Structure formats: C-alpha cells, structure tokens
Amino acid sequence: MDAGRWRGRDEVRWGGTTRSGSDLYDGIVEVAGAAPAWVRGIFSWYTDVGLLLFGALFVLTWWRARGRNDSEATAAALLAPASTVVAYVVSELLKTLVDADRPCRALPVDAIIARCPEVGDWSFPSNHATIASAAAVGLALAWRALLPWVAAMALLMVFSRVFVGVHYPRDVVVGLLLGAAVAWSVLRLGTPRLTALVLRSGDHPRLGRLLHATPPDLTATRRLRRPPLPGRRDPRQGGGR
After folding, report:
1. CA 204: distance to chain centroid?
2. Residue 90 contacts by C-beta under 8 Å, 6 or more apart in sequence?
3. Residue 151 · residue 145 · CB < 8 Å
4. How confident is the model at residue 71 (pLDDT cuts 50, 70, 90)?
5. Other residues' Cβ atoms within 10 Å of the Cβ of residue 188
6. Position 56 confidence tier, pLDDT thresholds 50, 70, 90
7. Which of 2, 32, 102, 126 pairs as cysteine with 175 (C-beta 3.0–4.6 A)?
8. pTM for the full model?
9. In terms of DSSP H, where are the helices of 164-225?
10. Is it true that the peptide bond before 125 is cis, omega within 30 degrees of 0?
C-alpha cells in the first residue's frame, strides 16, 4: 500500500499543527507530554527493554518444568519462545504488505517521548505488541500461575508503544490479537507432538540432561503403553491356568 495515500488519509491539520487523525492517540501523547519526568522515564525504559523480561521468564519456565520432570510443561516451555518468533515473522510480513507510516511522522520531533523510527520502519501492526502478546500466551500455557503477571506485562507493553508516541492504538490492538492467536495455535498443535519427543529424549546423554532433572522411566512408560501380543496372557494380570 502506498505510504503517501495512507498518510494522507490518517493525518489532518489542526490549529496549525499536524495531528495524527486519531483522537485516542493524540490524547495519550498529550497526557504523556504532560506527565512527570519519572513517569516518562519508566515508560521509555519499559518500551525499550521490557521484552527482555519475557526472555528471562522463558528460561525460568523451562528450568521449572525440567526440575519437575514434567514433559508436557517442558514441551510448552520450549514452544513458548518458538511461537513468539513465529508471531514476529508474521507481524513483519504484514508490515511489508501494509506499509503504514508511523503517527509520529506528523508530529514535531519533541512532541513524543521516544525517537520516531526511520522511514521504512512501518507501523502496522506493532512488533512489540505482537511479541509481548505471543510471549504472554505461551508462558501462561506453560505455567498457569504466570497468567496475571505476563498479561499485565503484555498490556503495559501495548500501552507503552502508544504512550511514547510510535504507534497508533490500532497497531497495538492488532498486534495483541495477532500474537495471542499465533502462540495459542502453535502450542495447541505442537505441544502433544513435542511432549512425546521430550519424553523419548530422556535416554540421550546430553539432550536428556537439558530436558529432565532425572531420566524418565521409559521402560515403565513403554510397558504400560504396549499391548500384549495376540494369543499371550498379559503378565500384569493375575491368575493362571
């Protein structure tokens, strides 16, 4: 889509100052500009490094699942970052298709907290919102107790991108929905298959130690799942001739 046509549709002149065309965006940016310096500092810091907190939680979630020898939780913990990468790739593809310009292009340099990204770094959808949402969903599916914390972190990231002035509200809302949908789909489809692989990796000399605190009892697992041969009595069943 031509950036000039998108920009011309979304931007209007108001009081001699170029405005974004989104009342919600303009209102949030104005509130951000009037906020105390320490508030602006917190949002500026979080919008830059907040995604690293999700990375730390990925490691913690994997370590917890490994320590509990929970193969399903370990599989979900491994798929959580993988699904986040998939969501990011999908978001980048959409950006190149839409070519929507940033709202901060229409504002003076000092009107927003963050530095407006360079031309060609498109706005729709928000990569930060997509990544935060996908990470939150993946982590919550791998470790249910994290749900309120990661949901709050994702929503704060979504809001921060508008607060610092680099995204329209629509950009972050679509990113939020996109990331959640991709992560949920990847974990829903992939967890059962990866759980079986994690379980079978228990007897691998190196991989087994990464995925299990203690090797799983594969012999017992196979014995429970293997049906008796035709014409032979199951030795687990009592009785004799």
Report:
1. 30
2. 130, 178, 182
3. no
4. confident
5. 12
6. very high
7. 126
8. 0.75
9. 169-200, 207-211, 218-225
10. yes
